[in-house]
């Protein structure tokens, strides 16, 4: 019969804690597996990877060039033709506001339509940009394409 005083964890499931610094007989005495003196032997040792011990760090002596002005970056929310097929009914007018309301895009600023998927419904699509194949797919399905004016600062 199994009683509480005879229950033990399964062999190998528990690991004994290493008792460091208990003399040379333990095999883990003296420096306790931490090497000799210095920063890495102390408690709370967290060195940054960029520190290289007095040597010039690699990140500082590699050449850097160029500048990326994010004000002139073209930021679009991309929409595929296949997602227009799923969400909108035939003859519907697709605008950035309608796309945001449907939950397809996050921001109304700029929208570009791409040709991933297929389209069988005639839709009136208004966006800031179209790929050539997306434009052809919309017109092939009997829809119309309107390119909206870009907002300038």
UniProtKB/TrEMBL annotation:
Keyword Membrane: no
Gene3D superfamilies assigned to the protein according to its UniProt record, in alphabetical order: 3.100.10.10
Biased composition (Basic residues): 8-20
Molecular function GO labels: rRNA binding; structural constituent of ribosome
A GO-annotated cellular component: cytosolic large ribosomal subunit
Alphabetized InterPro entries for the sequence: Ribosomal_uL15 (IPR030878), Ribosomal_uL15/eL18 (IPR021131), Ribosomal_uL15/eL18_sf (IPR036227), Ribosomal_uL15_bac-type (IPR005749), Ribosomal_uL15_CS (IPR001196)
PROSITE patterns per record: RIBOSOMAL_L15 (PS00475)
Keywords: Ribonucleoprotein, Ribosomal protein, RNA-binding, rRNA-binding
BP GO annotations: translation
Disordered: annotated span: 1-66
Domain Large ribosomal subunit protein uL15/eL18: 79-146
Family of this protein: Belongs to the universal ribosomal protein uL15 family.
Known partners and oligomeric status: Part of the 50S ribosomal subunit.
Function noted in UniProt: Binds to the 23S rRNA.
UniProt name for this protein: Large ribosomal subunit protein uL15
Species the sequence originates in: Candidatus Avelusimicrobium gallicola
């Amino acid at each position: 019969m199994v009683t509480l005083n005879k229950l033990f964890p399964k062999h190998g499931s528990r690991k004994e804690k290493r008792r460091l610094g208990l003399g040379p007989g333990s095999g883990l005495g003296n420096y306790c597996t931490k090497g000799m003196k210095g920063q890495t032997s102390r408690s709370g040792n967290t060195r940054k990877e960029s520190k290289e011990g007095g040597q010039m760090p690699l990140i500082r002596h590699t050449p850097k060039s160029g500048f990326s002005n994010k004000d002139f970056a073209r930021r679009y929310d991309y929409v595929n033709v296949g997602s227009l097929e799923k969400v909108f009914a035939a003859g519907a007018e697709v605008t950035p506001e309608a796309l945001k309301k449907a939950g397809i895009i996050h921001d109304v600023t700029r929208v570009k339509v791409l040709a991933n998927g297929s389209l069988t419904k005639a839709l009136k699509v208004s966006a800031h940009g179209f790929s050539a194949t997306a434009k052809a797919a919309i017109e092939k399905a009997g829809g119309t394409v309107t390119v909206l004016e870009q907002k300038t600062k």
